[in-house]
């Protein structure tokens, strides 16, 4: 959705009605995740819901939705009989919700777009299936909400769940009864979270940090590089970083915002920096804590951390030596190995070559 938001906002500001197709559910090896979007207006399409497999059919459906003003939930799956029929050649299944959008249909879009641009958290909940008002929409912020899904009780139930999903940056379908009953599944409500990007905190202003900052930015992280030495911690040396901070690493981390999506990469491999830093890092809720160094450095580091009072459970969270075993040598190759480990932990992959595995390529989100 972020990919098409600029064009969507321009059409909306011009007072035009267009079709917005969004992936709301995926099964098996679906090519794009929930939230992927394509917008359609007068012979023009931006974005993608399947990487090319069913875009033509979705385009036609979006044109119909704009003409009728009626939203539609459509499933696209495998094309078994005709190679040229509408289907996903990858073998996956996607549910696509197509809705008409204009200032009248979606008056909150301007405010949502402004929040996304400013990296302020906001979520949009839309009824996509069931006996309720399909297409009804509610915009939820951490401290308020606008619009209605049909009843106050349903709105209250959805608000609670959406704020929990927004805090974790989750997007997907939640199911309720007509009045928000969580034990029922009459209504399908798609929640699209626009959370601030996860943070990657890179400690140690070295050439490896520059490469990690580049790949972290590529993966969508808000990247911070921190080092106590002002001569090395400069924006000129780290142009891909969102922030470059001069501070003692452990002092900075103790005051920094760290949540369950944060990745911490300790590249200092100097005991006077990394031991006090890891004391703090391993006691945060960060999703990933990795530290660079040889196996000998790692063993010495563990001994020092035990002396500092860290428990075996806390030490078990440490990814050291950092990264997957790719045989990496250069800073860029090492950054790829770190990125590979982050992706593996996010999605639960085995880290093995796909030629050595069988079954589904894209597993369920862990």
UniProtKB/TrEMBL annotation:
PANTHER family for this protein: ALDEHYDE OXIDOREDUCTASE MOLYBDENUM COFACTOR ASSEMBLY PROTEIN, MOLYBDENUM COFACTOR INSERTION CHAPERONE PAOD
Native source species: Microbispora maris
Domain of life: Bacteria
Domain XdhC Rossmann as annotated: residue spans: 200-342
Signal peptide: none
Protein's UniProt name: XdhC/CoxI family protein
Domain called XdhC- CoxI: residue spans: 11-77, 117-177
Lineage: Bacteria, Bacillati, Actinomycetota, Actinomycetes, Streptosporangiales
Pfam families, alphabetized: XdhC_C, XdhC_CoxI
InterPro entries in UniProt: MoCofactor_Util/Proc, XdhC_CoxI, XdhC_Rossmann_dom
